[in-house]
Amino acid sequence: MNGVTPRDDVRTALVVCAHPDDVDFGAAGTVAVWTAAGIAVTYCLCTSGEASGDGSRPAEEVAAVRRAEQRAAAAEVGVTEVIFLEHADGTVEPTIALRRDLTRVIRQVRPDRVLTWSPEINWAMVATAHPDHRAVGAATFAAVYPDARNPNAHPALLRDEGLAPWTVPELWLADAPERLRDHAVDITEHFTRRMAALRAHVSQVGDNPGLEAGMRAHFTAAAARHGLPPGRLAEEFQVVDTS
Questions:
Q1: Which of 63, 74, 122, 229 has the most Cβ atoms closer than 10 angstroms to its Cβ?
Q2: Is 170 left (phi over 0), alpha (psi -120 to 50) or beta?
Q3: Nearest Cα to 117, choosing from 134, 101, 103?
Q4: How many helices (H) and strands (E) does the chain have?
Q5: CB 223 within 8 A of CB 234
């Protein structure tokens, strides 16, 4: 495929997703690769996942559990900074308010790379095309371009909070339509760590005995699509030059 060659000068990265466990299902191996290379990674969760479960527990209790699980998962792959924006789970839209909140985080973190979910539907795997995922992808893209770099966007961030504009040079999109995925990250050496991160979401994955085999098959197929040698595992992304 013809795509953007990822930058090799990245020192900081920001991962933006809708729910606790999104990053650990889709990109935790890549995060482990980055942190092992010395890249400082911050997570930004737009919700606390309180709309999950069978409805038998109060939303506040579910949210507290899921925030704790996400922090534990982050630690497994070398991430210590986890931000929760507390937008309502299940009703996320790419509003100006969400764009402002994400612009604030981008200007605070000042990342060289942002990873988020594609705003497009992956028709090959509809189960992952949650409306919250796509809304977060759209809002994050708008925060990356043009909001975070524009001093006139959300002017109170600069005027009242002293947050200067920041240009994000590179955007990575997870779960994009397969034809758009132009870059693979070999996660073979970090598969154990990424599975430990995923297993940290006990309320979501429990002790599912088939989880590791399913993940291994999924990442084996991704590696093969990108020409990696047999036996390798890869996560794949659409990489966009936003400089």
A1: 74
A2: beta
A3: 134
A4: 9, 7
A5: yes
Give the H/E segment covering residue 186: strand 183-186
pTM of the model: 0.96
Q: What is the pLDDT of residue 3?
A: 61
Binned at pLDDT 50, 70 and 90, residue 127 comes out as confident
Give the Cα separation of 10 and 243 in Å (integer): 13
**Contact, 50 vs 60, CB < 8 A?**
yes
Full DSSP string of 82-129: EEE--PPTT-----HHHHHHHHHHHHHH--SEEEEE-SS--GGGGGG-
Distance (Å, rounded) from C-alpha 147 to C-alpha 172? 17
One-letter amino acid of 14: L
